[in-house]
Amino acid sequence: MGKNLLVTGLQWGDEGKGKIIDVLSRQYDAVVRFQGGANAGHTVHVGEEKFVLHLVPSGILHPEKQCIIANGVVVDPECLTEEIEALKARGCDVDGRLWISDRCHVVMPYHKMMDGLQEAELGDRQIQTTRRGIGPCYADKAARTGIRFGELVDPEIFRPRLRQALDVKNRILTRIHGADPIDFDDVWDSYHSYAERLKPFVRDTVDMLHGLEREGKSLLLEGAQGAMLDINFGTYPYVTSSNVCSGGATVGAGLPPSSIDDVLGIVKAYCTRVGGGPFPTEQDNEVGAYLREKGNEYGSTTGRARRCGWLDAVALNYTVRVNGVSSLSLMLMDVLSGLPEIRICTGYRTGARTLEGFPSDAGALERVEPVYESFKGWEADIADVKRFDQLPEAAMDYVAAIESLTGTQVKMVSVGPKRSQLILRD
Ligand code: GDP
Ligand code: IMO
Ligand code: MG
């Protein structure tokens, strides 16, 4: 793979990006988050220990790596402070190698309140967000009313900015939503103390990244969420509020497109979705329940049960193209063991018509009927398989089908959550 690698989710998130970033980190000098926020939950297993990272890049468990939270990320200082303390308590020191862009927008308490209040207004059309304030924070960024980290860590700037912001937000909270206003002193006290704590980590990460590039260092770009949750290309409005797809990495990190050498797409061997919105291959039946239990499909951030279903090659083809994916890593393959039959959706039908391409409208996607191709399952437990040719015949056939349906090579097959449970193909 090229010098700088972008790792991105191709479904609805939770594909296993954290595991792959952790494994690949060894080969890179710095790991960079470039979009999303604490809505992400990236799980990394190190020996018997399990870490769930929300804002800190998943390379942090390798002590010599630089970890950068670049400008495109929206950062909740409370969440980040807790995450740093929790890592320290478990022996992972982040000082001198974790960096936050001064251009990152700050998630404020009113963003988190608005997230919940706006959801309540939607009735049965709820997005079922993570309630981490992501949408309202990106909305303020686009409206040019947000507060950035560079401002947060300068009390002389932050104080009047907070007063001005609360003046407007409290009117919206009380008059439109009938909620209680937010107290200036409460926010000032807590946010001022987060600012003091986080100040040493804040810097111009554009300069830093370009400096690393000049020195010939290699970058691993860590996507959060998945392409089907992208604000432009996902199942709008049931999406997150950031540019999840590969284009987002350049604006989210301040790197030119030419500095991204390769795009590795992370794909679960089946599909999951947490939250509302269309999901054509959902199996709200015993197959879905089997996948949920065997795959432990409960949200790493919110603990919510994930909706489960068959792999959707129509959606996957679309996200492979939008991202310019050059190879795939197929995750949670072990979860499929024991199913007598495995299906892949290879087309969408409405009435007698088979759709061309992927519909842009969530309502249209809701109405499609998936056309399935059926594959033979396998009984054997594959969690200890180390080489591709040691997989059951049916499992190899399944991987070959995914390669042929997407026109993309599967370079890695993951058969368990541990670092060692990864089959590399050359
Ligand atoms: P991310 O958001 O893409 O980083 O993924 P999450 O961490 O939210 O969810 C993936 C879950 O699957 C985590 O609990 C991982 O530990 C787990 N996992 C990753 N790869 C595998 C695998 O190959 N097999 C199994 N059984 N679990 C895996
Ligand atoms: P990782 O990085 C799965 C979903 C939420 C909701 C929608 C919008 O762990 O793959 P938001 O809070 O972003 O406004 O919620 O997006 N969502 C995720 N689902 N994995 C994630 O991140 C997600 N981040 C957001 O459930 O449906
Ligand atoms: Mg996750």
Q: Explain this structure to me?
A:
Helix 3 (109-121) packs across helix 4 and helix 6 packs across helix 7. By secondary structure, this protein is α/β, with parallel strands linked by helices. It has three domains: 5-101 and 202-263, Adenylosuccinate Synthetase, Chain A, domain 1 (3-Layer(aba) Sandwich); 105-198, Adenylosuccinate Synthetase, subunit A, domain 2, CATH 1.10.300; 267-424, Alpha-Beta Complex (Adenylosuccinate Synthetase, Chain A, domain 3), CATH 3.90.170.10. 34% of the residues lie in helices and 20% in strands. The chain has helices at residues 17-25, 77-89, 109-121, 134-143, 149-152, 155-176, 184-198, 205-214, 247-253, 286-294, 313-323, 362-367, 393-406, and strands at 5-9, 30-33, 42-46, 49-53, 66-69, 74-75, 98-101, 105-106, 202-203, 219-222, 262-268, 271-273, 307-309, 311-312, 327-331, 341-350, 353-354, 369-376, 409-414, 422-424. The strands form five sheets. The protein has a ten-stranded mixed beta sheet with strand order 9-7-5-2-10-1-11-15-19-20, with helices on both faces. The N and C termini lie close together (11 Å). The protein has 13 helices and 20 strands. Strand 19 (409-414) and strand 20 (422-424) form a beta hairpin. The chain is globular. Bound molecules: guanosine-5'-diphosphate (GDP), 6-O-phosphoryl inosine monophosphate and magnesium ion. The site of 6-O-phosphoryl inosine monophosphate (IMO) has 23 residues, from helix 4.
